[in-house]
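Hi support team,

I've been running sequence recovery on a batch of backbones for a student project. Most finish fine, but this one hangs at about 90% for roughly twenty minutes before it completes. I'm not sure whether the input is malformed or the queue is just slow. I've pasted the structure tokens below so you can try to reproduce it. Let me know if you need the job ID as well.

Thanks,
M.K.
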């Protein structure tokens, strides 16, 4: 069992020798790829150095193009510091980062998003990464903090980088950072882990690059708020070989051909059934407004577009790459809604989600994956709205009524609204 995330480098955490003796690391094959380009995406101006500097160093040494995108300037690393105000700390960290990557990164892109606030700026992160990933060669590798690292900024960056890479068919790998401290080896069970062996030169170069981040590895002053973020105990985890978790690639779906052939195969924009269903769903929501809604299996995103009028932000996710182009055309005029590639088996995206929409998707998902989404929504305190057609289909795992009964039986959830007619059913569940 893993413990709760901890972000204090002086915490003892899981000893490094426990990790190194674990089956996940002991049996991990060596990363075979030798990409002609590497894109490192970091939440803060040291994540890439800690998790993947050796990989970047070796890529640059082999002549590959190395680009680094940094979401924030790291101004939040020392809240309450009497020595450096956030603006001064940001300038210090940017300078340290530039020095640490000298001779390695051919280009560094700084987005200047707020440290500690990336969950609320997810759409901007997507918009920034899409053209950069689109310009990469076919054999490129994207690396980013692990989407399960426990740090909210790391998880959003890892989540978004993987989603953008998946849609483009670009390989992506995650680099654990804080998970080495708070996590335990079972956290890696069932995942594709790869080892990046570092020779003496690469290890020495990485040690020097980490040392360049003086504001993080040494106290700013004797004041408690100025403590070192990265203590020697924490840095032990980054002294040897590097370890990557391979992000799942996009897989073909049963719906791809339909979207390629028809664009909107179910006439979601015009059919009365679809328009009436959306009206009932919106009328069933118990709150007037939501912060962040996610529609799983959004298809053409016609429902997501209408949800945008009731939410501060709406994210539509779908596992079908051909569906995403159609969905984007639907959301062209919705400034607070966007699309990402995501298989439902990956769970919900990182972020402060308070509404999850499962429309015409529950009877296609494996029972375990469907239950996992419901449990995750409950654990995040989100409302869940379910809507499903009552017809029959050979490709449905269960009838709509059974799917809704399974959802209603989720421990810790209660039904607060329902609709039943001859065509479809709607249920709204909230945490009990």
């Amino acid at each position: 069992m893993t413990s709760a995330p901890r972000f204090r480098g002086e915490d003892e955490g899981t000893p490094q020798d426990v990790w190194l003796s674990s089956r996940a690391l002991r049996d991990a094959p060596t990363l075979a790829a030798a990409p002609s380009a590497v894109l490192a995406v970091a939440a803060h101006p040291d994540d890439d150095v800690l998790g993947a500097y050796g990989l970047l160093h070796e890529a640059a040494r082999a002549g590959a193009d190395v680009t680094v995108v940094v979401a924030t300037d790291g101004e939040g690393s020392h809240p309450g510091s009497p020595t450096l105000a956030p603006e001064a700390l940001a300038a210090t960290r940017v300078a340290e980062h530039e020095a640490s990557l000298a001779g390695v990164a051919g280009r560094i892109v700084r987005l200047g998003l707020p440290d500690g606030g990336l969950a609320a700026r997810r759409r901007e992160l997507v918009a920034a990464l899409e053209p950069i990933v689109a310009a990469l060669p076919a054999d490129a590798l994207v690396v980013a903090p692990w989407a399960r690292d426990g740090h909210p900024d790391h998880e959003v960056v890892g989540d978004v980088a993987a989603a953008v890479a998946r849609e483009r068919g670009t390989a992506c790998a995650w680099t654990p950072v804080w998970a080495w401290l708070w996590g335990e080896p079972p956290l890696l069970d069932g995942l594709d882990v790869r080892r990046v062996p570092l020779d003496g030169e690469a290890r020495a170069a990485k040690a020097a690059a980490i040392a360049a981040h003086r504001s993080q590895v040494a106290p700013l002053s004797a004041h408690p708020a100025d403590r070192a973020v990265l203590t020697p105990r924490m840095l032990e985890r980054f002294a040897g070989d590097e370890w990557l978790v391979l992000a799942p690639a996009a897989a073909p779906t049963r719906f791809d051909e339909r979207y390629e052939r028809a664009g909107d195969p179910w006439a979601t924009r015009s059919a009365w059934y679809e328009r009436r269903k959306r009206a009932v769903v919106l009328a069933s929501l118990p709150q007037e407004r939501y912060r962040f809604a996610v529609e799983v299996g959004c298809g053409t995103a016609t429902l997501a577009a209408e949800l945008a009028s009731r939410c501060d932000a709406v994210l539509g996710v779908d596992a079908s790459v051909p569906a995403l182009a159609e969905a984007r055309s639907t959301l062209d005029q919705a400034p607070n809604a966007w699309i990402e590639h995501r298989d439902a088996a990956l769970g919900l995206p990182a972020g402060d989600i308070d509404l999850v929409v499962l429309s015409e998707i529950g009877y296609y998902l494996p029972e375990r994956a469907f239950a996992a989404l419901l449990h995750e929504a409950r654990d995040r305190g989100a409302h869940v709205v379910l809507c499903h057609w009552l017809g029959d289909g050979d490709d449905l795992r269960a009838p709509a009524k059974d799917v809704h009964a399974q959802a209603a039986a989720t421990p810790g959830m209660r039904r607060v609204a329902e609709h039943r007619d001859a065509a479809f059913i709607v249920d709204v569940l909230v945490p009990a």
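--
Follow-up from support: It reproduced on our side and the slowdown came from queue contention, not your input. The two ends are 26 Å apart (CA to CA). No action needed from you.
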